[in-house]
């Protein structure tokens, strides 16, 4: 009966070689006061400056190995990327929600001004019943983006009711017509009525309010 020859197991990649063990012994003898750096460098077959660099590296590894391990689930690039993706999805949902609120405010202003929202200027789509609302909401899109930016600046990870209120705060934002301050819902109505005036006079009389920012807000 033939006996199979037992193969030698592959050496572990983490097992130090004879040279590494020799150098480690030299460093430990110096640390323990049994030898001097010059003798250790000669025994390890290296120059004295190179030995000092080796000793520094060895001590750093020793201290790192003796450090207490951190308990619990550790953060990883994959988990952090997934968390960021979820945060972006949440912000996108809130941005879409706020654009819907902005569009509804625009449609309400158009009806208050006596215009028919189905007749758009730049927006025309057979499946869109409010193209004119899409027209007059465009100047105020940056307002929604500005309030979404505040969420990012505040580093809010959870889109909770407080965060939703912060994003939708544009509905109560104070806007400026020159020296005059007016809330957003009144400003968008004023835009709709100025559009009526433009049609009547057959020349542009559009009134668009501005958002006055502080230096910190604009940063």
What does this structure look like?
With 219 residues, this protein is mainly α. The chain has 9 helices and 2 strands. It has helices at 18-31, 37-44, 48-66, 77-112, 131-137, 141-153, 161-167, 184-201, 215-218, and strands spanning 174-177, 180-183. Strands 1-2 form a two-stranded antiparallel sheet. The termini are far apart.
Q: Strands of the largest sheet, in order across it? A: 1-2
Give me the strand/helix succession.
Answer: HHHHHHHEEHH
Number of domains: 2
Q: What structural class should be given to the helix and strand makeup?
A: mainly alpha
Helix content class = 55-70%
Number of helices: 9
Q: Under the CATH scheme, which class of the largest domain?
A: Mainly Alpha
Give the second-level CATH assignment, the architecture of the largest domain.
Up-down Bundle
Can you tell me the residue ranges where pLDDT is under 50 for at least 5 consecutive residues?
A: 10-14, 214-219
Beta-strand proportion: under 5%
Mean pLDDT: 77
The CATH topology name of the largest domain reads Four Helix Bundle (Hemerythrin (Met), subunit A)
Number of strands: 2
Shape: rod-shaped
Q: Gyration radius, to the nearest Å? A: 35 Å
What's the name of the CATH homologous superfamily of the largest domain? CRISPR-associated endonuclease Cas1, C-terminal domain
Query: How many strands, what sense, and barrel or not for the largest sheet?
Result: 2 strands, antiparallel
